[in-house]
Amino acid sequence: MFLTPKLDHTSGEALYMQLYRSIREDMLQGRIPAGARLPSIRSLCRRLSLSRTPVAQAYDQLQAEGYVISKPRSGLFAAELPPALPSKPKRDIPTPSLPEAAEAANTAEAPPLVDFGYAAVDLKSFPAVRWRRLLNRSLQAEANPILLYGNIQGEPGLREQIASYLHQTRGVRCKPEQIVVGAGTYHSLDLLLQLLEGEVDILASEESVNTGIKALFRRFGYSGGSCVPLPLEPDGVCLSPLRASGAQAVYLTPSHQFPYGMILSAAKRLQLLQWAESQNGYLIENDYDGEFRYGGAPIPSLQSMDQSGRVIYLGTFSRALTPSFRLSYLVLPWQLVRRFKQGEHSYDQLASPLFQETLRLFMESGELERHMRRMRTLYEHKHAVLLDALRDSFRDRLQVIGAGSGLHVLVKLYTGTEEADLILKAARSGVKVYPVSVYALTAHKKTEGSVLLGFGGLDTEDIRTGVRLLAQAWLP
Questions:
Q1: Which residues lie below 8 Å from residue 240, measured CB to CB, with a gap of 6+?
Q2: Do 471 and 425 contact (CB within 8 A), yes or no?
Q3: pLDDT tens, 182-223?
Q4: Cβ pair 91, 85 in contact under 8 A
Q5: Residue 459: phi, psi to the nearest 5?
């Protein structure tokens, strides 16, 4: 097979992204059929007169999103995708998430020597001086309206900045009028479930979700037969149960599933979008850890592929900045925007207008973009240190699941030790790790000796020390 993409060397866009988009479009339009073998990196480099790096990066991105499949000693092959959605005229779109502290079975009374908390971020790197200067600037005006309750939908200036930021970083297409600022992920999801009452009687969801999300589902009556758990596979949720479920909405963390860390494949994204359009259903996209991916560009959001206004996008600044600011946001389809403005909810905007204004200034000055570049580099280094330490201490006796993005990994020990025993042994050695079983929608789900290790809040020496202590505690 020959590929002849149009590459613009004078464009500001990286060559590998141009190549990736061209190949992806050919696959979506059927010009590259399923099962077709892609040219080798060497042959494509020679044909396009490119160095190896952009071609390898483009192929890595396609493989990460599930557009191509690697077969050992054979090469890369186009994955089977569902038929493309019929083209429609372009129009404006109709164009803790932060985990809370987990229920860890840690019986040690003294503080742990190393805490692999997966909700932690690197506070030492937060630009406190710059933030404080902007906070003071927000307070300067006399009779400042931001000292009052503020706009129930969120301050207009911040919503403009969020719309621009999401388009640049996650491909989200929306107007500021579609954004509702909230006081944390659970607060935003609570509002959303209120807006969906009476329209969504059956909710489908990934079979493992954050404990706070589970509690919200129960509070809104989504339990038993009204909450359909979708099993998780290496490329995301299994869709077979969805088709016969009668669900009107699906809850997903497609960019980095919590807690297992897999990425929803391109084929399944397209199938879900087709399901939502055909059923007039909703896809609730919690873009958990979507900003942090290592070894390639971030996976585009599901909302960026939506042509029918059926994706509801949920995000937070807790991972990018700090959880204490309690700043989250919803991007609503227009029909839900109308419902929000009609007051079909008991929502009372709780996100501090003062913090909203400070964040607006932070974003407007370009400081958030600079901060995110620094944090991606820092977290990528910590991620590599953790993987190297696990490899050195455990060799082939431990499996790492969900590596490559986010601020945590899931590890599974091959010794057959149960989850509770792993946590207890770790605690006795001064290390705190976190359970997986608490996130199952159905209590009978077997955990097979897996625990969560977060690395965002630890320095590299603590990561190495913690892994060394875990090896001493877990290995015979």
A1: none
A2: no
A3: 988 888 999 999 999 989 999 999 999 988 898 999 989 998
A4: no
A5: -85, 170
3-state helix, strand, coil in the chain (%, to 5): 40, 15, 45
Question: Which phi and psi (to 5°) does residue 436 adopt?
Answer: -105, -30
**The total number of residues written for the chain in this structure:** 476
Distance between CA 36 and CA 31 in Å, rounded? 10
Asked if 66 contacts 263 with a C-beta cutoff of 8 angstroms, the reply is yes
Among residues 457, 433, 437, 456, which one has the least CA distance to residue 446?
437
Q: How far apart are CA 438 and CA 296, in angstroms?
A: 31
pLDDT interval class at 60 (50, 70, 90): confident
User: Whose structure tokens read 């706009």?
Assistant: 151
Give bridge partners of residue 48 from the DSSP assignment: none
**Which amino acid, residue 219?**
R
Contacts for 361 with CB less than 8 Å, ≥ 6 apart: 134, 137, 138
**Per the structure block, which two tokens stand in for 475?**
């290995």
Q: What is the mean pLDDT of the chain?
A: 85
Backbone angles phi, psi at 193, to 5 degrees: -65, -30
The overall longest dimension of the chain from CA atoms, in Å, is: 70
